[in-house]
Amino acid sequence: MTLLSIAVFAVLGAFARYAQTLFVQGLLGREFPFATLSINVLGSFLMGLLFFLTLDRLSISPAVRTGLLTGGLGAYTTFSTFSLESLSLFEQGEPAKALLYIVGSCVLGIGAAALGAYLARAAGAAA
Known about the structure:
The protein is mainly α and 127 residues long. 87% of the residues lie in helices and 0% in strands. The chain starts with a helix and ends with a helix. The model has no long low-confidence stretch (mean pLDDT 93).
């Protein structure tokens, strides 16, 4: 049941991301990645809200909770998980680990994207 819930919510999360991208780009254009920024911010807000509401106040099945948080918000934006994990490290009294995670994720993520782009371009040039 959990896998089905993840799959259903993942489809909904992906559709929501696409719809929001189209809406924000239509409203604000593509000069700046406002669509992705808005998705990351809204997804982080929803992760913080829904994670704790479903943990402390709302009674829903574990399968639906996992589907919503992992499938739905995971497909909508993985940045929300990154935000929640960073917050958790700060709340656990581990600010050095939190900062290492934040900086490491950003630097390594951008570096990995640059390496992937370089390799793809080099393969295209070699072909």
